[in-house]
Amino acid sequence: MVKDLKSTISNIEDGKQLIRSSGSVGANYIEGNEKLGEKDLKFRIKISRKEAKESEYWLKLLKDLNEKQEERIQKLIIEANEIRRILSAIVSKLK
Is residue 94 within 8 Å of 64, Cβ to Cβ? Predict the structure, then answer.
């Protein structure tokens, strides 16, 4: 999706941030599942949740600046929110 955006300074910078935060969601989830202990798992899941929320933020910024991609970006915002809610459910079960 980021590749399809116009090459403006804000799209480039916000796109970089989106790529970092969205990649971090999965990376921290995988790392948390390495079973170094329940405390580490909970910590990593919380980081994943935070990164999903940050990804949603960057998507909202990109949506505001890219009317032609608005529908596509809105779908990704919904997915980021769903992932965040799933991660929140996992954290609450780990208590």
Answer: no
Element of type H or E holding 12: helix 9-32
26 vs 5, 11, 51, 80, CA distance in Å? 23, 23, 9, 12
Give residue-wise pLDDT tens across range 13-54.
Answer: 999 999 999 999 999 999 998 878 889 999 999 999 999 999
- Is residue 11 within 8 Å of residue 1, measured between CB atoms? no
What does the longest C-alpha to C-alpha distance in the chain come to? 46
Which residue pairs, CB below 8 angstroms and at least 24 apart, start in 63-72? 65/8, 65/10, 65/11, 65/14, 66/5, 66/6, 66/11, 69/1, 69/4, 69/5, 72/1
pTM above 0.85, yes or no: yes
